[in-house]
Task: inverse folding
C-alpha cells in the first residue's frame, strides 16, 4: 500500500487575485487531487488506518467524500458503497460509478444519506467513512498546510488562510496543520453560502444549530449541522476563525471569474472561498480591523470539486442569473 493516496498539489501565485486582495494570493490547488478535491487527504488516511482488513467501505456524500472513498477503496482492492442524497447531480453519480462504487440514493439532503450509510455499515459489516467528522480525517487534511509551508519556504508565513466550510472537516484539519507548522496565530477566513451556513448559524446562536433545509445551490456545503469540533474551535481560542457568508450569486460569479482568470473550473462550494477575494471581502475585513494592514500573503485552499462541468455551470447560470 502507498504511503498515502493524495498528491502534493501545486501552490500557485495568482497575479489577478493578488491585485484584488491587496496582497499576494497563493492558491493551493486541491482540484488537482486524483479524486478531484482535498477530501482524499483525510479519507485516504482514515481508510489506511481502519479499512485495510475490511469487507468494504460505505460513505455518505454529496460527491467529494464519496469520490475520495471510491478512489481509495479501488486502490486498496475493497468494495465501496456511496450513499448520496437525491440532490446529487447525475454527473457525480456517473463519476462515482466509474470509480467502481455502488451508488445508492437516499433522502433529500446529506443528513438523510448519512443515516442510511450508518445503517448499511452496521447491517453489512462495512467500514463507515464519515465525510467530515472524525479525528483521522482532520489528521489527513492537516497535510495541506504542511505542504504549503514547505512550498512557501523557511520563515515565510501567511497572513490568513481562506477556505470553505461544509461540515467542518477541512477547517478542523487546517487548524491542526497550522499548529503543527507553528502558525497557530494565523487567522482562518471560513466561508459559507447563504442557505448552507450551519457553521455561521452555530456561531451566531452560541450553540450547534441544525438548519431546517439546505437551500443553497452549493450542495457540497450541504450539511445541516456542522461537526462539534469545528464549533468548539470557534469558541476555544485555539484558532482565530472569521466566519463569513456570500450569496449563491457571489459564489457562482467567483467560479466564473476563476475559470476566466486561472483557466480552472471548480464547483460552487469552492466558489464560496474564492468569492472572499472576488467580492472585495479582504479589504473590508481590514477596514473593520479584523485582518491586519498590511497583510502577509493570503493562502487560499482551492478545494476543487466533482460536481461541476460546463453543462452544470450553464444550468447554474440559468438558475441563479435569471
Result:
Amino acid at each position: 500500500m502507498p504511503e498515502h493516496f493524495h498528491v502534493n498539489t501545486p501552490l500557485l501565485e495568482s497575479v489577478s487575485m493578488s491585485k484584488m486582495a491587496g496582497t499576494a494570493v497563493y492558491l493551493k490547488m486541491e482540484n488537482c487531487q486524483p479524486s478531484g478535491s482535498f477530501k482524499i487527504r483525510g479519507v485516504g488516511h482514515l481508510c489506511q488506518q481502519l479499512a485495510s482488513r475490511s469487507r468494504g467501505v460505505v460513505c455518505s456524500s454529496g460527491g467529494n467524500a464519496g469520490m475520495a472513498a471510491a478512489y481509495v477503496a479501488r486502490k486498496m482492492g475493497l468494495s465501496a458503497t456511496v450513499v448520496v442524497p437525491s440532490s446529487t447531480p447525475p454527473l457525480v453519480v456517473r463519476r462515482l460509478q466509474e470509480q467502481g462504487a455502488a451508488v445508492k440514493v437516499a433522502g433529500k439532503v446529506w443528513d438523510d444519506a448519512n443515516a442510511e450509510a450508518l445503517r448499511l455499515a452496521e447491517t453489512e459489516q462495512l467500514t463507515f467513512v464519515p465525510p467530515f467528522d472524525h479525528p483521522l480525517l482532520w489528521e489527513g487534511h492537516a497535510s495541506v498546510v504542511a505542504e504549503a509551508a514547505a512550498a512557501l519556504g523557511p520563515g515565510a508565513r501567511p497572513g490568513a488562510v481562506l477556505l470553505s466550510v461544509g461540515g467542518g472537516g477541512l477547517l478542523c484539519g487546517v487548524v491542526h496543520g497550522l499548529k503543527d507548522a507553528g502558525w497557530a496565530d494565523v487567522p482562518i477566513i471560513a466561508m459559507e453560502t447563504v442557505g448552507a451556513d450551519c457553521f455561521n448559524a452555530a456561531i451566531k446562536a452560541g450553540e450547534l444549530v441544525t438548519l431546517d433545509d439546505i437551500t443553497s445551490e452549493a450542495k457540497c456545503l450541504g450539511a445541516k449541522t456542522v461537526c462539534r469540533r469545528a464549533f468548539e474551535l470557534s469558541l476555544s481560542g485555539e484558532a482565530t476563525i472569521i466566519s463569513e457568508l456570500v450569496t449563491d450569486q457571489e459564489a457562482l460569479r467567483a467560479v466564473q471569474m476563476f475559470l476566466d482568470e486561472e483557466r480552472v473550473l471548480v464547483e460552487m462550494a469552492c466558489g464560496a472561498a474564492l468569492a472572499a477575494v472576488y467580492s472585495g471581502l479582504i479589504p473590508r475585513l481590514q477596514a473593520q480591523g479584523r485582518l491586519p494592514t498590511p497583510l502577509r500573503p493570503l493562502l487560499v485552499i482551492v478545494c476543487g470539486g466533482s460536481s461541476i462541468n460546463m453543462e452544470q455551470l450553464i444550468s447554474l447560470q440559468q438558475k441563479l442569473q435569471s
Summary: The chain is about 45% helix and 15% strand. The chain has a mean pLDDT of 92. The first strand starts at residue 11 and ends at 13. The CA atoms of residues 140 and 314 lie 34 Å apart.
